[in-house]
Design a protein that fits this description.
The protein is mostly beta strands. It has a single domain, classed as Beta Barrel (Porin), CATH 2.40.160. Helices cover 9% and strands 58% of the residues. An 8-stranded antiparallel β-barrel has the order 1-5-6-7-8-10-11-12. The chain is rod-shaped and about 145 Å long.
């Protein structure tokens, strides 16, 4: 009986040793972590902007059948405010487009016309008109890259400007001040160049600060009744402006890559 238990014990011990040895020969299992690629950027967005416009000096004139082609001197134009809305589409991380509608508040254009027929040479009449503008622009942007949620960009746009002229006034050397009532509007080709940066403070909302150079074409007043034939319109050419804009964008694309965490180390078997 004692021999039987001794043999049983030795057999069990041998089985344990062989199992341990076999387990030691097995390779350590490792769970490999495969990162998930982030979702591609894209989707529609809405934008709203406010800004301040600094107009360059325009070129003022009128061409009358009696007086002739009269060119103004010392032209200037007041600055103005703007407000705009738009809808756009982000194609990928680097390219997007949007369609915008802007309104630019009234700004007074001023020029000095040499006085034709005045008794004293070197006299001028002061000519003024108010100009306000609506623009519809199709813009394209290149997003350079993103660092710490800041994305610089450059872009260009083309479109149309509805330029409205009103409150035409003249201040003559003899003290008279004729006023020409009514508005006159016209559509012009418009184009713009821009640069700026976007700051994304949430996945959906971002702040946009930028500069825009805009060319709006020209403006013409109502007919100046009483000057020559009465068919003359005052003309303001080279309407260009430097815009400094601040806006917000809402991105409808809320898709984001799943968050994952790196494991602390390989997971191994106890056997």
């Amino acid at each position: 009986m004692d021999n039987f238990f001794k043999r049983l014990s030795l057999t069990g011990f041998a089985v344990v040793l062989s199992t341990a040895g076999y387990a030691a020969d097995l390779p350590t299992p490792v769970i490999e972590h495969v990162p998930i690629a982030p979702a591609a950027a894209g989707g529609f967005y809405l934008r709203g902007d406010i800004g301040y416009k600094i107009y360059s000096d325009p070129s003022g004139s009128f061409n009358d059948p009696v007086i002739g082609d009269l060119r103004y001197e010392r032209e200037s134009m007041d600055n103005a405010w703007m407000i705009g809305v738009g809808v756009g589409y982000q194609f990928n991380d680097y390219f997007r487009t949007d369609l915008t509608l802007d309104y630019e508040t009234r700004a007074t254009a001023t020029g000095y016309a040499p006085c034709v027929g005045c008794a004293t040479a070197g006299q001028f009449s002061k000519e003024q008109a108010d100009i306000d503008v609506w623009t519809v622009m199709l813009n394209a942007y290149v997003d350079v890259g993103t660092w710490n949620r800041i994305t610089p960009y450059v872009g260009a746009g083309i479109g149309a400007a509805y330029v409205n002229t009103s409150n035409k006034k003249s201040f003559n050397p003899d003290g008279s001040s004729p006023t020409y009532d009514g508005d006159n509007g016209q559509w012009n080709f418009a184009w713009a160049l821009m640069a700026g940066a976007e700051y994304a403070f949430t996945p959906n909302w971002s702040l946009d600060a930028g500069y825009r150079y805009k060319n709006l074409g020209e403006a013409k007043s109502v007919k100046l009744v009483g000057v020559g034939s009465g068919g003359t319109r005052e003309r303001w050419e080279d309407l260009t402006a430097h815009e400094f804009r601040l806006g917000a964008r809402y991105n409808f694309n809320t898709t984001s890559a799943p968050t994952y965490y790196e494991p602390q180390g390989p997971i191994t078997s106890n056997f």
